[in-house]
What we know:
The protein is mainly α. The chain contains 15 helices and four strands.
Amino acid sequence: MMRFIRSAFVIARRDFSATVLSKTFIFFLLAPLFPLVFGGVFGTISTRIASRNERPVIAVVWNQSDFDRLAKARQEMSDALGDDQVVKLAPFKPQADTDAQVRELLASRNVPVRAVMTGDLAHPHLTGSIAGDKGTAGQLRMLIDDARSAPAANTALQVTTVEASSGSLSTDRAVTAQIAQTLLFVLSILLSGMLLSQLIEEKSNKIIEVIAAAIPIDAMFVGKLFAMLAASVTGLVVWISAGALMIQMIKHGGVATLPPPAVGWPMFLALTIAYFGMNYLLLGAAFLTIGAQASTAREVQTLSMPVTFGQMLLLLFASTAIGAPDSTEGIAAAVFPLSSPLAMLARAAERAELWPHLLALLWQALWVAIILRVGAQLFRKTVLKSGPRRPWWKLGRA
């Protein structure tokens, strides 16, 4: 047992030093910047596209007095719902040939007119392409009814603003849970995939056979896995610190203004690192086992693709716990080993109890040990195989 631990520690120290002390580790730490940059660029482009495809304009060919009453009703609805949620109105003076004016407005390229409303407040008539847009016609009916009615006095409503309520806090914590789940999933997939390329490189250079001659194969498997876990945790701590520093610099009030998770920020960050470790060990063992089955990068890509899609399904399964961690789906996601870290991290953002996390970490540790055992056996059986491959129908005879 001591020889196994010493051998695993030697491999872990070797791989950790080779990873963290290399120049490429700096680029590894800068890797999260690229999704942020691309996200900002695509977000700007999406905003521009949305502004171009904003709610179309309804041309109103009425007399000025009727349009003023309709515009006042629209302003009241806009104050309640927001300007982007209410149809936009554009006034036009009636001309002698109303039908020709309607055709001209509908064909106009300067203003994106969806429909034209003619007549007057008493007898409105709408012409346009709104067959599949029932909301526009419905809003116009409400605006016309409001404009026809006699003006009523504004209702006095005294408003007292508080920092947070149960509803707003629940919504904020659900958003925190969703963001934490997504980041944990992306980082686990990204970092555990590094094991594949490293193992393929050592297999192609025959280095792994030299190491296997000196230490047990199981110790090599465990050492490599925990070395990359330590390197990943190092990167995770750097990213969390950099993110907190950035928020402190660009946001007024800094991190203190963020909605706190149910367990508090210190415990939430500690649980994030713990669940990241568990999730990484579960995924890393699977990826390392896959890497032992393949001998080329192409085979690695072919084998890892189904696993990646499976993990996406697990993310969707774990997301059912957001907002309802005590539901049947939430408890099932927390009990299932491969989705348990994601589901329990979401629970930490929404529930203040700590004892479920202790049970979950023990449960996940048990399954980590099981998967490590099975993965190490497969690793030992396949990592030293060389020579021509046998067809699959001859493997049993061999």
